[in-house]
Amino acid sequence: MASLIPPKRPHKVGAPKLSLQLGGAGQSVAHYDEQPSGGDTTIMPAQPICAQSESERLSELQQAVKPRRVSAGESDLMKLSMSQISGGERRGSDDASLTSLNMDDSEMRQDNLEFISHLGDGASGVVSKVRIKSTGQIVARKVISTSPNPAIHRQLLRELNINQTCHSPYIVDFYGVFFDAAEASVVMCMEYCEGGSMDAVYKEVRRRHGRIGEKVLLKVAECVLGGLAYLHSRRIIHCDVKPSNILVTRDGQIKLCDFGVSGELINSVAGTFTGTSYYMAPERIRGQPYTIASDVWSLGVSLLEMASNRFPFPPEGEPFLGPIELLTYITNSPLPQLKDDEARGIRWSRAFRDLVDRCLVRDGKARAGPDVLIMHPAVKRSMQTPNSDIARFVARVWDWDAK
Ligand SMILES: Nc1ncnc2c1ncn2[C@@H]1O[C@H](COP(=O)(O)OP(=O)(O)OP(=O)(O)O)[C@@H](O)[C@H]1O
Ligand SMILES: [Mg+2]
After folding, report:
1. What's the 259 CA to ligand 2 centre distance in angstroms?
2. DSSP state of 346
3. Distance between CA atoms of 156 and 399, rounded to whole angstroms?
């Protein structure tokens, strides 16, 4: 617990307060910015929905990657480099705030990647921290086992390469993808986010009987909405917003990863596709068209989960539900709301509650999109929070100062 106690250095004037609260049952609750301001809630207009079917979206993505030149040689088919795909579109010199990494064809091979440590396992792949031997750069490598069918590899690589044309401070930088024939696997290299996923962060905080506070959660909301708005401008729908796909860098930036149709495709190719995710919006569960507002629902579920230290469906105290009942519950039952926990001194601001409520509007057509919610007063307030505050938070969670 001691590690979650804020460092004993004087606060700068105007710097956000970090304080420790004593929870019930003798537990101390480290709560970041636990004094939310209330009352600055305004009514947000509903956003007109631009409905786009799954097949339209897929064909758009395919159009987007069409001009790519793919030679007939097997190795070229399996290894589409950044230079082939995006040409001059790769970030310009005015983009210095983003990590710059040029991996060319010769660098995109397994024997140029030196394993450092294991970062995590997903349903379809294994993520590791690796060093690019030829440049010394540290990146995250995700390896996904696939079927040996070259046509599937081609499709997978094309869809994954859409990532390389995305450049936003709210999106994890994607460096390249190649096919490792020896292992029959697709290998992706992306920006290494040292703070890990928000899933890992909130579970570590929970393990230490803490709770992530509103200021950090609002920053997560701000950055995810920023990332979704960017993707929307590129006509991409994320489709898999959840805490494990929201990553934090050492300097406190919060970024989205694993977006687009590739997630589903990968899972189906890897044989792990179940067709469902409990973060899916009700319209998606019902098989209706997926829109960018569906991603907003998933953000709402994620915010509730991180705020309450547990997946919010069904609410605490209700009996365990099997997968089908759980999906039925999500589409029909009363929606969970952020609850204060007076005993532990946890009070959420009205603005934050309102933001979560707006994400969790059950009717997809009435739910606001990211470009509307980004103007929400709670999000505007979050824009005043510097990344350095998030960097301090993540350093405390992982005890970096003590190491
Ligand atoms: N770029 C990255 N930098 C640091 N850690 C990462 C990075 N990408 C993924 N991770 C870690 O690896 C874990 C596994 O990621 P992966 O995307 O394979 O699965 P997942 O998102 O956890 O779950 P699922 O497969 O169900 O979507 C993540 O939870 C995260 O902790
Ligand atoms: Mg993931």
Report:
1. 9
2. B
3. 38
Token pair for residue 400? 């970096």
Query: Tokens 């209706």 identify what position?
Result: 288
Residue pLDDT, tens place only, 86-133: 222 333 333 322 334 556 667 778 889 999 999 999 887 899 999 999
- Could you count the other beta carbons within 10 Å of the beta carbon of residue 244? 17
CA distance 259 to 240: 6
The rounded distance, in Å, linking the Cα atoms of 253 and 172 is: 10
- Give the integer Cα–Cα distance in Å for 382 and 389: 11
Length of the chain: 403
Backbone angles phi, psi at 175, to 5 degrees: -100, -25
Residue with the smallest CA separation from ligand 1 atom 27 is 122
Beta pairing class for 174-180 and 138-145: unpaired
Residue owning the nearest CA to atom 16 of ligand 1: 122
User: Residue 248: in which H helix or E strand, if any?
Assistant: strand 246-248
Amino acid making up residue 182 = A
Ligand whose nearest atom lies closest to the CA of 267 = 1
Both tokens of 344, joined, read 């532990």
**Higher-confidence residue: 343 or 120?**
120
Closest alpha carbon to 49 in 298, 282, 363:
363
Run of H or E including 352: helix 350-359
Count CA atoms within 13 Å of residue 190 on its CB side. Answer: 29
Taking the C-alpha atoms of residue 211 and residue 178, their distance in angstroms, rounded to an integer, is 40
Q: Which of 116, 119, 239 to mutate to test ligand 1, by most ligand atoms within 8 A of the CB atom?
A: 119
Summarize the annotated binding site for ATP as residue ranges. Answer: 142
Average pLDDT over residues 276-295: 88
The domains located in the chain, with CATH, are: 1-91+195-403 (1.10.510.10), 92-191 (3.30.200.20)
Residue 358 CB neighbours (<10 A): 20
Helix, strand, coil shares of the chain, percent, nearest 5, are: 40, 15, 45
Would you say the pTM of this structure is higher than 0.85?
A: no
Q: Are 225 and 299 in contact (CB under 8 A)?
A: yes
Q: Which residues line ligand 1 (CB under 6 A)?
A: 119-125, 127, 140, 142, 172, 190-193, 196-197, 199-200, 244-245, 247, 257-258
Tell me what the mean pLDDT of segment 360-365 comes to: 95
CA distances from 210 to 27, 30, 240 (A): 9, 5, 27
